[in-house]
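F.,

This is the one I mentioned.
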C-alpha cells in the first residue's frame, strides 16, 4: 500500500538499557549514519504494524534470506545492512513514496562510507531528522556550551521561551508546543535506571543571558543546582576572567557510545542541522580541549555557588 509523505512520522526511541551494543565495521563506516538507518527501519516496521517475526515471514516469501535474529541485530545497531536489503525491508513495510524511500536508500549507501564528518539533516528530509537515536544509546557525554543551557537540562518554560525568541513569529503555537514536547522527551535518557554520565561546562555568560521572563531564568538556574546533586551530573562554570583558551573555538559535545564504538563529536551545523565528527584525530583534539576547559573552569562547589547567585539575581 502506498504511503503518503505526510503520514510518515519520526518517533523518538528510548531503551532502558541504552539500546544494546554497537560495533564498527572493519572499513570504519559511519557510526552516525548506521544508527540513523537502524532507527528509521525500526520506525517503518512499527508504522506498518508488523512484529519482527511477521516482517521476516514476508521477507522470506519474497525470496530473501532473513531471520528474526538478523532483523533484531539490524534494528539494535549490532549488524550492518546492505542497500539491497534495505530495499527489501521498505517493500515489506509498504514504503513506496519516492520522497521518503530515496533518502533512506541514499542513507543506506552512505552508511558504508568511511567515517569522517557526517551532517545530520543532510541525509534525511526535515521530518526524519533525529539526534535522539544517538542520545538513546549514550554511555557518557561531555558538553561545553557558550550560549544556552544544554537541551537535556532545560526546563519546559526555558525551552518554550528559547523557541519563541529564535523563531520570532515564523512558528505557530501548535508547532512550538510540539517542539517543546520533543525536547522534553529527549530528557528521558537522564531518567533511565542507569543514566549516562554527563559532564557539562557552561560559559559564565550563559547564566547572564536572559531567555524569557526573569522567573523563567530563575527556575532554570535552580533546576541546574538541583540536577547537579545527582551523581550522574558534573557541572562546572567557565568564569569570564578565565581568558583565552580552547573555549574560543565554540561549543561542542563529546559522545561516548557502548563499546567498542569510538567517541564522536557533534555540534550545531547551522540551518542544515547537526554536524557529527568521527575522525579519530579530530575527536582526540576535542577531548584534549575539554580536558583543558575542565581545568580552567571553577570546581564543582564554586560553580554551584555561582549558579545559585545568578538565580537570585533574577528574583
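My design for it:
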Amino acid at each position: 500500500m502506498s504511503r503518503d509523505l505526510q503520514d510518515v512520522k519520526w518517533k523518538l526511541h528510548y531503551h532502558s538499557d541504552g539500546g544494546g551494543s554497537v560495533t564498527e565495521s572493519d572499513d570504519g563506516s559511519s557510526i552516525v549514519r548506521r544508527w540513523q538507518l537502524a532507527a528509521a527501519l525500526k520506525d517503518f516496521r512499527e508504522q506498518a504494524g508488523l512484529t519482527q517475526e511477521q516482517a521476516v515471514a514476508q521477507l522470506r516469501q519474497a525470496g530473501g534470506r532473513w531471520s528474526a535474529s538478523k532483523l533484531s541485530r539490524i534494528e539494535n545497531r549490532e549488524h550492518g545492512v546492505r542497500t539491497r536489503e534495505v530495499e527489501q525491508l521498505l517493500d515489506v513495510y509498504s514504503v513506496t513514496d519516492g520522497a521518503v524511500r530515496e533518502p533512506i536508500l541514499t542513507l543506506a549507501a552512505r552508511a558504508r562510507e568511511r567515517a569522517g564528518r557526517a551532517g545530520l539533516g543532510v541525509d534525511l528530509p526535515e521530518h526524519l531528522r533525529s539526534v535522539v537515536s544517538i542520545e538513546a544509546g549514550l554511555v557518557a557525554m561531555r558538553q561545553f556550551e557558550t550560549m544556552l543551557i544544554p537541551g537535556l537540562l532545560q526546563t519546559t518554560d526555558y525551552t518554550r521561551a528559547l523557541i519563541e525568541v529564535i523563531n520570532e513569529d515564523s512558528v505557530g503555537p501548535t508547532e512550538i508546543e510540539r517542539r517543546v514536547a520533543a525536547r522534553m522527551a529527549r530528557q528521558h535518557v537522564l531518567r533511565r535506571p542507569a543514566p549516562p554520565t554527563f559532564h557539562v561546562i557552561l560559559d559564565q555568560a550563559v547564566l547572564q543571558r536572559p531567555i524569557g521572563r526573569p522567573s523563567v531564568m530563575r527556575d532554570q538556574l535552580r533546576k541546574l543546582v538541583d540536577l547537579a546533586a545527582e551523581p550522574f551530573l558534573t557541572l562546572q562554570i567557565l568564569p569570564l576572567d578565565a581568558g583565552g583558551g580552547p573555549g574560543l573555538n565554540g561549543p561542542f559535545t563529546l559522545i561516548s557510545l557502548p563499546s567498542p564504538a569510538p567517541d564522536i563529536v557533534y555540534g550545531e551545523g547551522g540551518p542544515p542541522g547537526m554536524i557529527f565528527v568521527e575522525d579519530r584525530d579530530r575527536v582526540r583534539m576535542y577531548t584534549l580541549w575539554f580536558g583543558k576547559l575542565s581545568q580552567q573552569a571553577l570546581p564543582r562547589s564554586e560553580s554551584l555557588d555561582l549558579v545559585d547567585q545568578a538565580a537570585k539575581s533574577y528574583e
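The longest helix spans residues 31-47.

Talk soon.
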